[in-house]
Amino acid sequence: MFPKETYTTRRNSLREKLDSGIVLMPGNTEAAFNYPANTYHFRQDSNFLYFFGLDHPDLAGVMDIDANTDYIFGNDVDMDDIIWMGPQPLIAERASHVGIGHTAPYSDLAGFLLSAIRKGRKIHFLPPYRGEQAIELERLLGIHSSMVKSHASLALIKAVVALREIKDALEIAEIEKAINTAWEMHTTAMKMAMPGVVEQEIAGVMEGIALKNGGAVSFPIILSINGQTLHNHYHGNTLVPGRMMVADAGCETTLHYASDITRTVPVGGKFEPRQKAIYEIVLQANLSAIQAAKPGVLNRDLHLLACKTIANGLKELGLMKGDIDEAVCQGAHALFMPHGLGHHMGLDVHDMEGLGEDFVGYDENTVRSQQFGLAFLRFGKALKPGHVFTIEPGCYFIPALIDQWREAGKFTEYINYDRVESYKDFGGVRIEDDVLVTENGHRVLGKPIPKTVAEIEALMKH
Ligand SMILES: [Mn+2]
Q1: Rounded-to-integer distance, Cα 79 and Cα 85, Å
Q2: Which CATH class is domain 169-460?
Q3: Superfamily of domain 4-164
Q4: How far apart are the CA of 392 and the centre of ligand 1, in A?
Q5: C-alpha angle 238/242/246, rounded to 5°?
Q6: pLDDT value of residue 230
Q7: Using one digit for the tens of pLDDT, what is the confidence trace for 356-383?
């Protein structure tokens, strides 16, 4: 846990952004896996963690904005719990570690809220993303669970985004810890990427490295020799020469800050000429987007810069043709890069996505595009110092998409389909780093993970 001042400062900043009313922030409960007593690994809600810090189930944080008082509602353990879980601190003791002096049993929460509702006071809450949360909010607030999301407080969403999107030094240090564990995950995976190895052997070792460093993976590991499937969680293929292995994986620290890194390597450790050519194009897109990152620049422009870099490279290989600026403007490159350049990262690997992607990634000056490809960009607004985000361009040869576009005659002035046909067995390449926006520019966070052709080939030789 951070020092208690971190949490009191965060709550005071939130208070300043809200005029009045009550903030209700429920923590997460245990979630059943295959029967009630067998639960998933507990993960606290990130907003609760940010403002109330306590990493235990069945708590709710409340802030009375007008009375300037914060509360933790939760139950002290009984003897049954102690027998199974060992001694546990009292709720009051836990709350004191995050600067809160007022605690009450969880059963008091409904009455506390009811008396506020009867006085006509506004209850601010965030949109729930678990069914149990929606049902609990129905019980506490008398709003039908199907309607709870639409009653979430816009003022609270905007205030939370404004605070959480700017990372302070303590948070950046945590994120760098998570990236340093990802360094170990990815360099180990690269060394293992030899013919005959099954993907799950590598994915399992990567997940183990996350766990031994104190956190879980920050999302289910994506690892595949079929990298053209963007989020491939099937790990049953045997590595064969001629394929590239995409590994998109990160971890959480014990405080739940995330990393999210992608590396792509040739099975066996030596790039074939065709692999090297596509890889260098994606690397150039990754490097040019990173290079252009600084306060005030629209992330959408970094995305378009990466797309143009890829399209220009593909033109040199004869896969695209014509006016590349126009091709990217019209979205022809999305055949090869049908996703966005990246997303915010922090306590969530896609930071705050549960609050609504457009509240996090767009603002009054930037509207999300409807165009295939650009529409999938989660983060389009201007960069600010303290933003931490991913830069993850990719180039993929998706046979079904190629066939569909070719049959429809899409963008024949920009795409050389005859040549693209010969790449249908290629797979995909993605290269992802985690980047901090500084006062004047940017910093790629964490210990550098091999990324150039020479660095990867040198590492995989051993
Ligand atoms: Mn990512």
Answers
A1: 10
A2: alpha beta
A3: Creatinase/prolidase N-terminal domain (3.40.350.10)
A4: 7
A5: 65
A6: 81
A7: 999 999 999 999 998 998 988 999 999 9
Q: For the purposes of burial, counting CB atoms within 10 Å of the CB of 83, is it exposed (0-12), middle (13-18) or buried (19 or more)? A: exposed
pLDDT digits (tens, 9 = 90+) for 331-347: 999 999 999 999 999 99
CA gap 371, 410 in Å, rounded: 14
Q: Separation of 249 CA from ligand 1 center, angstroms? A: 8
Please determine, for residue 82, whether its predicted confidence score (pLDDT) is greater than 90: no
The structural domains of the chain, with segments of one domain joined by +, span: 4-164, 169-460
Cα of 8 from ligand 1 centre, angstroms: 31
The string of pLDDT tens digits covering residues 434-456 is: 999 999 999 999 999 999 999 99
d(CA 312, CA 287) in angstroms, rounded, equals 15
Query: What is the Cβ-side half-sphere exposure of residue 2, based on CA atoms within 13 angstroms?
Result: 22
